[in-house]
Write a structure and sequence with these properties.
Chains: A mainly alpha, B mainly alpha, C mainly alpha
Strand content of chain B: under 5%
Helix content of chain A: over 70%
Largest sheet of chain B: none
Shape of chain A: flat
Radius of gyration of chain B: 21 Å
Shape of chain B: elongated
Order of helices and strands of chain B: EHHHHHHH
Structural class of chain A: mainly alpha
Oligomer: heterotrimer
Number of strands of chain B: 1
Distance between the termini of chain A: 54 Å
Strand content of chain A: under 5%
Number of strands of chain A: 1
Structural class of chain B: mainly alpha
Largest interface: A-B, 57 and 60 residues
Radius of gyration of chain A: 18 Å
Distance between the termini of chain B: 46 Å
Chain lengths: 97, 220, 561
């Protein structure tokens, strides 16, 4: 028995994604200083979450799948943050540019 | 919400190591999600390099980013998002035994993948004639040409690796379309389509990050 | 002939040990059921795949050992006698590459894990048998690429491929060697995915997580590391290959790149990789110590949790390989503290194994000799790791023979001994026959003596200042090198003996029966050799593992079966 999702969920997700794309594009032409990166990343993360939730059917799936979905990202964060720590303390990466 | 119940015919597709179709499906989904986690870390190495150098060479990266064709990049993002939509419907069609719909949607996904690759090809050619390809006629008028070349190296590495993944995805979709046409995904044997869909959506997600990080550094 | 013919029998759980079962060789088993080359090359049976891997990794072990032998012979004299410096560089490189990626990392998981894991959890096979076979082919392909590189002159960068030498200045076949490792890495990832899904989804009824044998916990933890770390190695090798090919790259100072970034990425994988290598060994030790002291493991939850803690913490310490690389002192301090922390779960395990021995009924059978050797030698290796984790000490001993001795104590004194112990322990299950016990004990002791003679002098050498990867050294170090080479010859004998007697025992060993060790564990509740699908009926588990008691088996003498 497999759950079948209603088409309107998929359509709404698709439209939301295209709207977010438009937002990404528009932000790219506005000067927000350091927030350009933060907003762009936030929009990208939102897109990723709704693709995962609705297209990849994470919504309603087991906690184990949620864990698998998140694990890679968490480990990537470990790798980036500790490495950045080295580069920051060596003067390569100026925080608060 | 409509559900599909055909337990008797489903068991024909259960591998001997599994007890029932449910276990097989769960195992396959978990396996694919773990594989996607490995892909996150595979791309992750490039994201690490990007992060370090973007913060170190901020100004040059902004300038270099603005020379990329944001129209092609943006269009390609839309192309992939729509292809994901088609793929989601394809998975739905496979669960509802809609052979023709499934075949069409899989072909549509593959087609949009090809559109993506074609636009990428056009874009790469343009980058080449604009002298933005490292070591292949690279020319940079501004300051810090080395750092600019570094940006473009990362750009080609990340989009190139992504393009390889898209190509593999197109291949998978074409094979699945053929199998779908031959009626292989009927009566409960639809998990393969769902698993392939997970891969395709992942490839889409990666591009959702690549687009702003490469094309929209700073502001235009 | 089988043990689950009635309902009552099929209710037999991991808590009940088969006693008084006469030694029977299962006439119809996973080996007898199909014959011929295709039956092996197209098998989906995890047991046959385990044996395929065994043959393959042994071949690489032999090649890597030859390289080591040549190095040790060269090191007998302070001046070059046997090889040029360029060749010496290639020797230690191929030794490291093959030993790490084509022997140690696959060893226990792909041989013993493949064979035993499904049986231990009462399953008919792993979750993805076809992928399992594919992982072996991928492994062979990676090995073929590495051998191609070797035949065409090899690589001289060291197994660590540091930039900018590997990307810019080396004149050797770096790309093909890196490609070989890249491909082999995918074999690891596939195995890891298979084991994780198998453990989650295919446990027998009643086999809850906290009733799992600790070998399963350690393989699970290992698999987590495999899937999370190996992709980073893959991208790193791809990056240096592309940089080498293209002429520029992200590690290139000409573009403002940092060669040390390579080290961050390389060690982000390679430190967890050492835990991929040792965790399965630790899992084997838990099985051996309990069986051969006839006692429940001390602190089951602590040992299982320690495996998970090692897996997670092991990802946060990679910078301790980079203390003198120009990494910042602050990063160094963070990595140093975390490295001290990651030693704690290992210490917990050693304590718990020792506590398990206390008041147990100790049987000095061959597997137990290897297990006891492991505990001692791993402890020495692990403690010297703490020396290296201390920033100031590391400045003195980094890149010296001290480091070499440290990791060989863990990898050879620890891991290889665990592998040998596990191989002897499960050999009766795999082949249906016993190996010759006296020869086994003798080989174990020769190995122990040879090992210590080889590697203990290297601690001294390193502390006195002998750098690693040098074959020219001051004459006053010669005595230590001579001792080390002498030890290596003895160690070689210790490894050769099992190779010979296992082959002999395959045909001529005494029949073992289903459970010669009177061990708990589902794998012993089926015949030896096992049937193709492991169990006639899926077992049901009703109690915890290791339900041994020292008083119960008073008549047992496992040291002379």
């Amino acid at each position: 028995m497999e759950k079948v999702v209603e088409p309107k969920i998929y359509f709404r997700t698709g439209i939301a994604l295209l709207v977010l794309l438009a937002a990404t594009w528009m932000i790219g032409y506005v000067d927000l200083g350091p927030f350009n990166l933060i907003v762009a990343l936030a929009i990208a993360i939102t897109k990723a979450i709704i693709i995962a939730l609705f297209f990849m059917h994470i919504k309603g799936s087991s906690r184990l799948l949620h864990l698998a979905a998140v694990a890679g990202l968490l480990w990537l964060l470990f790798m980036i943050s500790l490495t950045l720590g080295d580069y920051y303390t060596r003067g390569w990466v100026p925080l608060g540019h | 919400m409509p559900t599909l119940t055909s337990p008797v015919s489903e068991d024909a597709f259960v591998g001997q190591q599994f007890d029932d179709i449910e276990q097989q499906r769960d195992a396959a989904k978990l396996g694919m999600w773990i594989f996607l986690a490995t892909e996150v870390l595979f791309f992750g190495g490039l994201f690490l390099g990007y992060t370090i150098y973007r913060f170190t060479y901020g100004h040059v990266f902004v300038e270099a980013s603005h020379k990329l064709d944001v129209v092609i990049g943006g269009t390609n993002t839309a192309v992939l998002l729509v292809s994901s939509l088609l793929m989601a419907f394809a998975v739905r069609a496979s669960k509802l035994d809609q052979r023709r719909m499934l075949t069409g949607l899989l072909l549509g996904t593959a087609l949009l993948g090809c559109v993506f690759m074609s636009l990428k090809g056009v874009e790469y050619h343009k980058d080449y004639t604009d002298h933005l390809v490292p070591r292949m006629g690279f020319k940079w008028e501004g300051a810090d040409p080395g750092n600019a070349e570094l940006f473009y190296w990362i750009y080609f590495a990340m989009t190139g690796l992504h393009a390889i993944h898209v190509t593999v995805g197109i291949g998978i979709m074409l094979v699945l379309a053929l199998l779908a046409w031959l009626g292989k995904f009927s009566r409960g044997n639809h998990n393969t389509v769902e698993i392939a869909g997970l891969y395709w959506h992942f490839v889409d997600i990666v591009w959702c990050f690549l687009f702003p990080l490469l094309y929209l550094v700073g502001h235009r | 002939m089988n043990n689950a013919t009635s309902e009552a029998d099929s209710m037999k759980s991991a808590t009940e040990v088969i006693v008084d079962r006469p030694g029977e060789f299962a006439r119809e088993n996973y080996l007898s059921i199909h014959h011929g080359v295709k039956a092996w090359l197209l098998t989906k049976d995890h047991k046959r795949i385990g044996l395929l891997y065994l043959g393959t990794i042994l071949s690489f072990f032999v090649i890597a050992s030859v390289a080591a032998a040549l190095m040790r012979i060269e090191l007998l004299t302070p001046q070059p006698k046997l090889v040029t410096s360029e060749t010496y560089n290639k020797l230690f490189t191929i030794h490291g590459v093959l030993m790490v990626w084509f022997f140690l990392i696959p060893s226990i998981p792909t041989v013993l894990g493949n064979f035993v894991l499904p049986m231990m959890i009462g399953a008919r096979d792993v979750a993805f048998p076809k992928l399992n076979l594919m992982s072996w082919y991928i492994f062979v392909a990676g090995g073929a690429l590495a051998l191609w590189s070797l035949i065409h002159g090899g690589v001289d960068t060291g197994w660590t491929f540091y930039t900018p030498y590997s990307t810019t200045y080396a004149n050797t076949h770096v790309i093909s060697m890196a490609a070989g490792v890249f491909v082999a890495g995918f074999s690891t990832i596939v195995t890891g995915i298979n084991f994780i899904v198998t453990t989650h989804k295919m446990r027998a009824p009643g086999l809850t997580w906290f009733r799992l044998p600790l070998f399963v916990w350690s393989l699970y933890a290992t698999s987590l590391i495999m899937v999370l770390a190996t992709p980073v190695l893959a991208i790193t090798l791809a990056l240096i290959s592309v940089e080498r090919f293209w002429g520029v790259g992200i590690f290139d100072p000409k573009l403002g790149g940092d060669p040390v970034l390579f080290q961050h990425m390389f060690w982000f994988y390679s430190h967890p990789a050492v835990y991929i290598m040792i965790l399965p060994g630790m899992g084997v030790i838990s099985e051996l110590i309990t069986c051969f002291s006839r006692k429940q493991i001390y602190g089951y939850v602590w040992v299982g949790s320690a495996s998970m803690a090692i897996a997670i913490l092991g990802f946060l310490v990679w910078g301790h390989h980079m203390f003198v690389s120009s990494q910042s002192v602050y990063a160094g301090m963070v990595f140093s503290i975390l490295s001290f922390l990651v030693a704690v779960p290992s210490g917990i395990k050693v304590f718990n194994w020792t506590a398990t021995l206390r008041k147990g009924s100790i049987h000095f059978a061959t597997p137990m000799l290897y297990a006891l050797g492991f505990i001692g030698l791993f402890t020495i290796g692990g403690l010297t790791g703490l020396f290296l984790a201390a920033l100031a000490v590391d400045v003195h001993v980094h890149d010296t023979y001290f480091v070499i001795a440290h990791f060989h104590y863990i990898m050879v004194g620890g891991m290889v001994m665990a592998f040998m112990g596990g191989l002897h322990y499960w050999w009766p299950k795999i082949s249906g026959r016993l190996y010759p016990e006296f020869a086994g004990k003798l080989a174990a002791m020769i190995t122990f003596i040879g090992f210590n003679l080889t590697f203990f002098p290297q601690f001294i050498l390193g502390y006195l200042g002998q750098p690693r990867r040098y074959h020219i050294y001051p004459p006053e170090f010669q005595i230590y090198h001579v001792l080390s080479t002498a030890g290596a010859s003895i160690l070689g004998i210790g490894y050769l003996m099992p190779l010979i007697y296992f082959i002999w025992a395959w045909r001529h060993g005494r029949v073992a029966g289903p459970n010669p060790w009177r061990a708990t564990g589902l794998e012993w509740q089926t015949t030896s050799p096992p049937p193709e699908h492991n169990f006639e009926e899926t077992p049901i588990v009703t109690g915890p593992p290791y339900s041994y008691s020292p008083e119960k088996d008073a008549d047992l003498n496992l040291a002379s079966l």
